[in-house]
Fold:
Amino acid sequence: MRRAGAIEALTLPLAQHLGPRGITANTVVPATTDTDLNASWLRGNSELIAAIAAQNALDRIGEPADVADVVALLTCRDARWVTGQLIDATGGFRL
Structure:
């Protein structure tokens, strides 16, 4: 699994600190995602997209909705018992 550095280091203390108030704290780690921020080096470069997709178990790069759905899952009541976790939302990047 990829690591998120400083964000990862903050997740556990935040979960511990906020838990008594009923607040969960988790980190979502995406892989390469087709966003406007990445457009300048990603879009239009089909060879690069294919190379990145080949490293992914789902054989594609992520879409913003892929990551947004994971975040939405963590905000629903059904995820109330999940806290202090690093959630891999990479679609199986470099498994």
The chain has one domain: 6-89. The mean pLDDT is 93.
